[in-house]
Design goal:
Elements lengths: L2 H13 L8 E4 L9 E4 L5 E8 L3 E7 L10 E2 L8 E8 L5 E8 L9 E8 L10 E2 L15 E4 L2 E5 L4 E5 L4 E4 L11 E3 L5 E3 L3 E3 L7 E2 L15 E3 L5 E7 L7 E7 L8 E6 L12 E6 L2 E8 L9 E8 H13 L1
Antiparallel strand pairs: 1-24, 2-3, 3-4, 4-5, 6-7, 7-8, 8-9, 10-11, 11-12, 12-13, 14-15, 15-16, 16-17, 18-19, 19-20, 20-21, 22-23, 23-24
Length: 330
């Protein structure tokens, strides 16, 4: 083996597994469906919503310093006194925030068909407009867990459990997306090249009119509300995997695609506490700028310091890319 090549391999191995910064605790949820959502505003504010008490206390917290410190979490006013299930956050092109969450038809009956409500904020998540509902079949539950895809002004691609539709908030009309298939409760991403990647393991280069199955795609579809897929500004795609036994496994990692979603294989593990996580973690990733990502996830092991918590982890994109590539090579 040539000395230069050996030196490169040694350097890569030294970098692999280097400690990440400790996650920042941003909430102390009591239990139940915590399932966070996250987005970054045009001003760089990170906004996070999560379930504090199962179905009855949806909260919001904000960070204006890249996730180092967080505001006290407060109940999301539009959900107070109503049953709910956590949803998603999206930053629109005009700078407004779109918060979509899940409501039951009745005030207290969790068995009623669910509907998805949405509200907009023009001030970095401080105040929100009166909620409106996305269209749905009255007999079929409609659920959202992933960010919408803004196709154009007033054309929102909604990844709902019962429908994959394009919605116009000005006319309140909707139409089927692409070939009309329902992808289910999975994330949808449009890459910088205009390619659509479905969490169902499908790829389309013609705006959803035709789809091809992606070989070796991460198992995002199973419990699609639990996993995530996110497209980065540099064209990379990240999908989450939670590994290990039990409800929530023991490790969380990314599977990475660098070629517009054609191939997947590089991995990067970012959370491994050495024990069962306890809950489903439901990670959500945002791009912070400055070459960094922010990851929100929960760990409900009661024996950890501070008890069950919601956490924020800052991760260097350069570190992720370098180490994922090195693992693939080796």
């Amino acid at each position: 083996m040539k000395p230069i090549f050996l030196a490169v391999l040694v350097a890569l191995h030294v970098g692999l597994g280097a400690e990440l910064a400790a996650p920042v605790r941003i909430g102390n949820p009591v239990g139940g469906h915590i399932h966070p959502a996250a987005c970054v505003t045009a001003k760089g504010t990170v906004v996070v919503t999560y379930g504090h008490i199962n179905h009855h206390d949806l909260r919001l917290t904000r960070s204006t310093d890249g996730g180092a410190t967080w505001s006290e979490s407060k109940p999301f006013a539009l959900a107070v006194g109503k049953t709910y299930y956590p949803g998603s956050l999206t930053t629109l092109r005009d700078g407004r925030l779109l918060h979509a969450w899940n409501r039951w038809s009745a005030e207290t009956n969790e068995k009623e068909p669910r509907s998805v409500l949405y509200s907009l904020s023009a001030d970095d998540g401080l105040t929100w407009s009166e909620p409106k509902a996305f269209p749905r079949d009255e007999k079929t539950p409609s659920i959202i867990r992933h960010p919408i895809v803004e196709l154009a002004a007033n054309r929102w691609l909604l990844p709902l459990s019962d429908q994959t539709q394009v919605f116009d908030p000005t006319t309140r009309m909707s139409e089927a997306f692409g070939d009309g298939r329902v992808h289910g409760l999975v994330p949808m991403v449009r890459t910088p090249k205009g390619t659509f990647i479905s969490g169902a393991g499908l790829r389309s280069t013609d705006a959803g009119k035709t789809w091809l199955t992606i070989p070796n795609f991460p198992n995002v579809k199973e419990q699609g509300w639990r996993h995530e897929m996110v497209g980065l500004a540099n064209g990379w795609l990240l999908a989450s995997e939670i590994l290990g036994p039990g409800v929530g496994g023991e490790r969380i990692r990314y599977v990475l695609s660098r070629d517009d979603g054609v191939t997947w294989g590089e991995t990067f593990e970012y959370y491994h506490p050495g024990r069962a996580i306890g809950g489903r973690a439901c990670p959500r990733t945002v791009e912070l700028g400055g070459g960094n990502l922010g990851i929100v996830f929960y760990d409900v092991d009661p024996k950890q310091a501070g008890g069950p918590g919601l956490f924020f982890l800052k991760l260097s994109l350069e570190k992720l890319g370098r180490e994922a590539q090195a693992r693939a090579v080796n």
